[in-house]
């Protein structure tokens, strides 16, 4: 299948803009480029509060807490933004987190975890785990129900969500009822079929992913750690139910689908949905790509089913 017309239009605009490829940029230049990219429409929610969450190394983790309209207590979703552990922020994922808050009728906590290369592995993973623990312990102050706590994220954020479920299982809490993984980074293998087929020309490239890995985990030997690459975990048993979404024209497609299959084989209730004709990052392109709206409603429906609010 070819990219959809809407997807191709976005790719054409990116090609016309030109400029250096991601892996040819300095980190600050890449961050500025991402911050300047257009965002989808951001709906109003009941309340948005900026907080600082205690971090694992004495650091404070800035975060946004999105609360829906109405009376709580509401289920709680921790959403970890993408950007290859190097780029991205709660501000840049604001439209997506607002949509999830509205559609799933849940509180969303979106942290600005520490980024590489200033803070390589395991800083991001430990920050996201600290945020999840805080959500379990403190979200009731915002009208949250810590007994209905889920984690989610896109790309590197999907990696961090998957990693947090492993940490929560092995560190005896908090209890997580669901994980939504949006085209997640699951392994450090850049030689899969989808990497070969989609190495360049579809926004996220193989060279771009190599650039991200080199900043986040500079030592290749460390990339076999399950808290770097969840596919390397000795066991996936006992993890929360999962929804994994992948995109046809995405280097990460095969590893996301393989992880979904591995979760299911370990006895974890898992749904894997591939969206054809679209590229990495499509989930956040509401208003530009129709499949983004479809996928967001799929996720919201899955969350409501788990939360018991459907």
Protein architecture, described:
The protein has helices at 5-17, 27-36, 94-104, 123-138, 156-170, 193-197, 206-216, 253-265, 290-307; strands at 47-54, 60-67, 74-80, 107-111, 144-154, 178-182, 242-249, 270-279. The chain is of the alpha/beta class. It has a single domain, classed as Rossmann fold (3-Layer(aba) Sandwich), CATH 3.40.50.1820. Strand 3 (74-80), helix 3 and strand 4 (107-111) form a beta-alpha-beta unit. Helix 4 (123-138) packs across helix 5 (156-170). The protein starts with a helix and ends with a helix.
Domains counted in the coordinates: how many? 1
Cα(first) to Cα(last) distance is 34 Å
Tally of alpha and pi helices: 9
Order of helices and strands: HHEEEHEHEHEHHEHEH
- Main-sheet strand order equals 1-2-4-3-5-6-7-8
Q: Characterize the quaternary organization of these chains.
A: single chain
CATH class: Alpha Beta
Share of residues in helices: 25-40%
CATH superfamily: Alpha/Beta hydrolase fold, catalytic domain
Question: Could you name the ranges where pLDDT drops below 50 across 5 or more consecutive residues?
Answer: none
